[in-house]
Amino acid sequence: MVMSRAQFQVFLDSHGADPERWPESEHNKAERLIASDAAARAMFDAAQRLDALLARHTQITQDNDDAVARVMKRLAGPLPRQKVPFWRWPTVLLDWEFSPAWPRVAALACCAALGFYIGIAGLDRPLDRLHQSSIMSRDIGSVVFEPEGLTGAGP
Fold this sequence. Notes:
The protein is mainly alpha-helical. It has seven helices and no strands. It is elongated, with a radius of gyration of 40 Å.
């Protein structure tokens, strides 16, 4: 079976241009195609140039070793002290790991619910005046036309 140019291009992209890295089953087919087809030789030459460029840019030099040594030395020492914001509540409540923050969120929700209940029920008013402040004990005219009891603002 003969290898086509498209198959050869995929073969070069997969295994590179070094014949030593080619699988034995495809090695002979690829060499026959390179020997018989000028376009295949051009693809092979382009793959060899690409491999040479990649090898040159990934080559480890003494400069790289020095840079790695400097970075490792810097990381081995103590890390600088991190800045902690003074007001941390928003970050605590917006943390996506709810396991350490859920008791705080639950306490905040309970306080909000209790405040809402006290505001709606009128528990902040004295008990002897509680029945007077209810809307049900007044007629609609007094609710609309009389000044407000707390601020004295009128319509």
